Fold this protein.
Amino acid sequence: MAGLISRLRRLRHSDQAVAAHVRETLTQSLYASPQSLVIGAMTSSVIVVVVAVISDRAAMLACALAILVVAGIRIVDALRLFPLLSKDRASCFGGKRQELLYRFGALAYSGLLGTFGFLTLIGTDDGDLQLLAVTTAVGYAAGIAGRNAGRPWIALSQLCLAAVPLALGLFLTFEPLKAVLALVILFFVVAMMDITLQTYGVILRATVASTEKTALAEHHAAVARRDDLTGVANRTAFRERYEAQLEALIWSEESERQGLAIYWLDLDKFKEINDSFGHLAGNALLSGIARRLDEAFGIDGIVARLGGDEFAVVCAIRDKEEAIGIGRRILDLVESPVHHDARHLNVSASIGIAIAPADGTDADTLLKNADLALYRAKDSGRGVMRFYEPVMDEKIERARDLAAEIQGALGRGEFYLVFQPIFNLNGGGVQSCEALLRWNNRRYGQVSPGEFIPIAEGNGFIVQIGGWVIQEACRTASQWPNGVTIAVNLSPIQLRSANLRAVIVNALAASGLAAERLELEVTESVLLEDIDGSLGALQAINLLHVQTTLDDFGTGYSSLSYLSKFPFQTLKIDRSFIADLDQSSASVAIVQAVIDLAAKLGMRTIAEGVETAAQLAQLRRTQCDAVQGYWLSRPIPASMVTTMLAGETPNTGCRASPGASPS
Ligand code: C2E
Ligand code: CA
Ligand code: CA
């Protein structure tokens, strides 16, 4: 008994300490099995009505009526709430208010049952009626102790309210046997209280463990769907939420919001911030931008980091005007500086936009289209947004396919070189050949260098491919007579690459070609981008005794100051001037001036793109040193070069006779 009292005391404290969500689960357990409540309420109501009617006593009839009303209310309440629990809509459950309501009904019902038993015991002498009333109340009390143990105060109160009036009624009959039964009922109450408390302990522990497990699982699930660095949704979560929003959009009958826009962002030159200020600065920038986007669009839409410096924002929109406004806002948010380590970090973003349902109705199509739009945005310069347009598909997709294909092209042996002879106008013969790269792709066939070289420069593969060109060109030229040199085009990216020197040295060593027989052609644009870097690289090349040629002279800014500043041995006049030689006296004057200046600076000159006899004749008059062009020879395979150099006449696809002095 003392144990029971101390457990009751503890219960008062421990029940208050139970976390709200655990208490909510326990309260829900009261409604978990409406059948038992309905059966209990119906059977006991039927019995009390029968007993009251037979006894024909007003008090008992009134009590039976009250029991019927309360039973009815409780049945309706239980049946109303059960579907909410079973359909996982527990959030609609009323919590504390509901517990109060249940408690009120339960206590009223138990109290009325106990009172009815009491009235039967003191108001009638009919042993059968007394038996019915007592067993109904005791049976109810026994059942309730187990059923409602999740909310022990309710169960204990019900137990007492149903059973104690019976004991009192039995004592008041002043019959010895009934007094014994009254004592038994009181012992029974004490025993049932003990059982209720023990059952409660077990239920509580199980509920706490289960809710903790659920909370942990939810926490893990949330972490797995969040981007570690920025805290916004990651790619997986983005995909799920985007698909769900699309589905809602497609299925919604008539919505004020008519479209769902996805903004695919890529930060411009983010890599440079990372390289110049370090990863921590890069991370701070990504986090800062993610936070801003999330604050602006995360509540109604989706903000996600798709990896690296790519983000996605999804927003419901009414029309294109609104979509443009959101795009501008995103650009502004990205462009305002992020403070880190006493520095202002600035970037801009390129944005590709696709709008559902106009640009697609499934996530794959929309993402692909947003990506195509992004590709075009990046192509148009920095800080630009572009909407998806169907015509983008074909051209951009070819460029992207080629970018993917180029990665394995070297390994598959799809590249080869052709050589275009360069003729000396003084001696007449072939002084050199320019190595020109060709790509025969397994899917696209012949792809022109004008198309694939910018792609290879874009993804950096040009360094590897260019290395192969140098090696292959040296190997081929090593088979030619000593007087013939080989010219190889260098991409700006190759010129800046750290391993250029090693590539050249290895190619020369492997082929046995003398360094003086290798000429590297670079275009003017390279020099403009990075004057000091280019100068250093060119000097390093010259130190190896390898020659350098300024290619396409006249196409860029054509600053004559380059000519004295940079160590070029040869200057190649761009074919646009040569094409005009026939018609324009201005072009003649320019070419003449360039050739004279080059001669004064000790440089040789080559005119490229010679297509007619008249151009050739004019170049002779202007004292150009060498010529190259379709009039003399198209680019030809190595085997034909060998034939040509041996003094035979191969079919070079040109009208002039290249073997002899071009005239
Ligand atoms: P480029 O260095 O100016 O090369 C000369 C281009 O003019 C070649 O085009 C050649 O076939 C073409 N050509 C030669 N004679 C004539 C002519 O009389 N008339 C006309 N209209 N064109 C003529 P190709 O082979 O298509 O190469 C285009 C460009 O691709 C080259 O221009 C060069 O910038 C680049 N390239 C080619 N091979 C390589 C390489 O191995 N590495 C790098 N980095 N770039 C290369
Ligand atoms: Ca060239
Ligand atoms: Ca050229």
